[in-house]
Amino acid sequence: MEVTVDVAGKVVLITGAARGIGAEVARRLAAKGAKLALVGLEGEQLRQVAEQCGGQAWEADVTDWQALETAVNGVVDHYGGIDVVVANAGIAATGFIRSMDPAAFERVIEVNLLGVWRTVRTCLPHLIASRGYCLVVSSLAAIVHIPGNGAYSAAKAGCEAFADSLRAEVRHLGVDVGVAYFSWIATDMVNSADEHPVFGPLRSGMPGLAGKKYPVSDVGRAVVRAISRRSKAVHVPGWVGGLKLLRAFTPKVVDRQAPKSVPAADREMAANDLSGLVGPGGTAAAAAKKD
Which CATH architecture has domain 11-290? Predict the structure, then answer.
């Protein structure tokens, strides 16, 4: 019989909480009485979300050890501990690997994979103390590796593997670990990518459900449910869970589809220097790297 945990009064730390999935989850948890600790860039936006949630904001780059440690220590000093961590901070970049801006590719890996590792490592002693729950945000991109999404797919596949290893390591300490797999969600990041002259048509032209976007509210509901159940996995939409069982066949499907759209897209990317980070989050991450 599945046990459901009341999130009221629980201290939940969410990274990448200034907008999109992080902000949506924060608002829904606040409505259920959770205490929110929001960590991320875009300080003014982050503070606005915290105010809406009755929570607190800590501006920090998840790739910066010192900034993360300062933020986590601040959360613990303020709330007395941490019960749940949602390692959500992530960015995306458009580009084909042969012509992609190396700085953009590597910044995606830094934020989406190393940022998760650094967040979890910094918070882990507090999760062990509370026998808490950690949710690592991976993606459908960990399962299906499409052209033009190499950096994001590599990072999110790494997140999945990292979380699976972590789960086995900390179960005996009373900490549960979940992995979130989301398809295309109508966030600023995905909407900005859709405006790209090459990647946008490539993404939206994917066959069937693969090209559909889903509302961020679907993710908010699913993540709150996963936290209350300390779930091992959460999928939005639900068919993503079924696709995981067939992942051995997904490269063949991508290989079959790629010849229809990739050659022209690849040439245009290479000729016009169209790669780079997308959306407000990408802009903030690029600025943080320069600082």
Answer: 3-Layer(aba) Sandwich (3.40)
